[in-house]
Amino acid sequence: MNIELDTIYLNNNAIDYVADDGLIKAVEIAIALGKPLLISGEPGTGKTKLADYVAMQLATQTAGKEYAFLQEPFVFNTKSTSVSTDLFYFYDAVSHFRSQHADTTTEQFIELKPMGLAIAQTHGLNSKDLEGVRKIENLSAACLDAQPRSSVVLIDEIDKAPREFPNDLLNEMETYRFDIKEINQSVSRCNSDCRILVIMTSNSEKNLPNAFLRRCVFYHIGFPDKEKLLQIAKKRLMIANGEYDALLGKAIDEFNIIRSRAMNKKPSTSEFLDWINLLKHYNLLNNNSFSPDNKDPLYEATRSTLIKNYEDQLIVNNKAAM
Predict the structure, then answer these.
(1) d(CA 264, CA 5)
(2) What is the pLDDT of residue 316?
(3) Between the CA of residue 26 and those of 122, 172, 269, what are the distances in Å?
(4) With respect to CATH, is domain 14-221 assigned 3.40.50.300?
(5) 229-258 as b/e: b if 16+ CB within 10 A
(6) Quick one: average pLDDT of 217-232?
(7) Which of 86, 98, 220 is nearest to 160 (CA)?
(8) Which among 5, 154, 272, 304 counts the fewest CB atoms within 10 Å?
(9) 84, 162 Cβ separation under 8 angstroms
(10) Across residues 175-190, what is the average pLDDT?
(11) Where are the domains of the chain?
(12) In the predicted model, is pLDDT for residue 93 greater than 70?
């Protein structure tokens, strides 16, 4: 048996992100107040992609203006071991200790992290105000624009971090200033005209401290209804006309049935998109072959993108057979 070597692409262009009016208003409020925006919602509902979309939109809207936004966000992926300084910089003490070169400096073992880069970017790489940190390893044209620029910072899955992590960020997040104690240097935002929009995502796995929440703008991305799922599918599959609307609607109905029956792991929006992409790629999304009662082995195989638990598989299949 030959195994088919195939590649199936999904359109991940940030400009095709589907954001509802409430979400856009929350972004605007966070910008106006100069506060972080905390986004919650089920995994796979597009929380992380929001930062890419917002950065691209703001870059387009401010292009050619002073302190224009960068087109891509600075991204911090939170870990269970993250501490507050990790958001600003990292000092590799082990490598520094092991270094045998007499001419090495502490700065060579320091790396600015997303929020540190965003704050430095408000000065621009060529600014004299960065002379004290000029020798830091990644302070270069590869990371920063020469001119002062605004930016978006994504702190992804902040609820993964220890509880003290968000509380330890309160002062630095309000003042946009941080200290690098290893070289006795401080870096602060250049001026208020350069904006830093912080977007944080949470899967609501654990409650965040109230003192932290008081300083945030909050928005919950609910699971999309049928109309929005149709809109998302057409955007991501790059379908410009109504040719597939009826069939996509039928597939969405089938997806919602599976989602309602799954007890352990309900399929997400991202899994829905993978499934729809497979149906379209294998020409299963047509009147002759697609239906909820379809027993085509290929069609059944595509549902592996939706059902990720053996017990759910039994429940969904048994109920589908009833």
Answers:
(1) 32
(2) 85
(3) 23, 22, 21
(4) yes
(5) bbebbbbbbebeeeebeebbebbbebbbeb
(6) 94
(7) 86
(8) 5
(9) no
(10) 91
(11) 14-221, 226-321
(12) yes
For 262, 279, 299, the CA distances from 283, given in Å and listed in that order, are 26, 6, 10
Sign of torsion over alpha carbons 43, 46, 52, 57: negative
> At 273, which amino acid appears?
L
Q: How many CB atoms within 10 Å of residue 216?
A: 19
Other residues' Cβ atoms within 10 Å of the Cβ of residue 25: 12
Distance, CA of 69 to CA of 56 (rounded, Å): 8
Cβ neighbours around 116 below 10 Å, total? 28
Q: Regarding beta strands 110-112 and 89-91, do their DSSP bridges make them parallel or antiparallel, or are they unpaired?
A: antiparallel
Q: Does this model's pTM top 0.70?
A: yes
Mind spelling out the 3-state secondary structure of the chain? CCCCCCCCCCCCCHHHCCCCHHHHHHHHHHHHHCCCEEEEECCCCCHHHHHHHHHHHHHHHHCCCCCCECCCCEEEECCCCCCHHHHCEEECHHHHHHCCCCCCCHHHHEEECHHHHHHHHCCCCCCHHHHHHCCCCCCCCCCCCCCCCEEEEEEECHHHCCCHHHHHCHHHHHHCEEEECCCCEEEECCCCCCCEEEEEEECCCCCCCHHHHCCCEEEEECCCCHHHHHHHHHHHCCCCCCCCHHHHHHHHHHHHHHHHHCCCCCCCHHHHHHHHHHHHHCCCCCCCCCCCCCCCHHHHHHHHHCCCCHHHHHHHHHHHHC
What tokens does 19 get?
């954001």
Q: What is the pLDDT of residue 322?
A: 47
Looking at residues 241-256, what average pLDDT do you find?
88
Place of tokens 């107040």: 33
| Region for residue 40 given its phi and psi (left: phi exceeds 0; alpha: psi -120 to 50; beta: otherwise) | beta
Amino acid 4 reads E
Which residue reads 């070289």 in tokens? 183
Mean pLDDT value across the chain: 89
The Cα–Cα gap between 71 and 53 comes to 9
